[in-house]
Specification:
This protein is an alpha/beta fold.
């Protein structure tokens, strides 16, 4: 995964057609959530500077607003002004206070995010995690809602203990975080309801 110092950058360009592009991206994100592990390309043209992936920016522009607290890791912090300008999302300094979180660097421990409560499991964090590659890397076997039998998602750039973290996250269901993996213009969704098993010992 590419990262950079948290120095501020100029405001990056958003959607060329804010309403139509946002609607198209939103539909694509919902479709990805309904089909866990499937790699999709977002149908919008964005070209933010590194390390921010176009898919990550599209997710932020589509889902974040003034009612969704947002947490940025150090690698993403330089884009704070841009995201406030486009989304109006209030920034928080702790991951467990966030409705959405953007990790342009290494994925923060899943347990550090908001996990929801028994009464309000939806009050949890959706984590947008940039990875080195989707479609190559460690193969993960997925099963659960939205998957016909089993699906395989190969990912490069997740923590070595991601599968163990995901198992602990799943044990909290219906609480727990949802994760959207991004690379370039592509994304794949991992809702908390999905079970993940490593297909080799690289993800334990």
């Amino acid at each position: 995964m590419t990262s950079q110092p948290n120095a501020a950058v100029e405001i990056v360009a958003g959607f060329a057609s804010p309403v139509l592009d946002s609607q198209a991206a939103f539909r694509a994100i919902l479709d990805a959530m309904a089909h866990p592990g499937r790699i999709d390309s977002l149908p919008v043209a964005l070209d933010p500077p590194a390390p921010l992936a176009p898919a990550s920016l599209a997710v932020m522009l589509s889902l974040c607003d003034h009612e969704t607290p947002l947490w940025l890791d150090d690698a993403a912090a330089g884009f704070a002004t841009s995201l406030r300008f486009h989304c109006g999302a209030p920034l928080v300094d702790a991951p467990d206070k966030a409705a959405f979180a953007l990790c342009c660097g290494p994925l923060q421990a899943l347990a550090s995010f908001a996990l929801g409560t028994a009464e309000y499991p939806e009050h949890s964090t959706t984590v947008i995690c940039q990875v080195s590659a989707l479609g190559t890397g460690v193969p993960l076997s997925l099963h659960g809602p939205g998957i016909d039998g089993r699906a395989t998602l190969a990912v490069s750039g997740l923590p070595d203990d991601f599968c163990a973290q995901w198992e602990a996250n799943g044990a909290l269901f219906p609480q727990g975080v949802d994760v959207i993996l991004t690379e370039g213009h592509r994304l794949a969704a991992l809702p908390r309801s999905v079970k993940i098993e490593p297909e080799n010992e690289a993800c334990m």
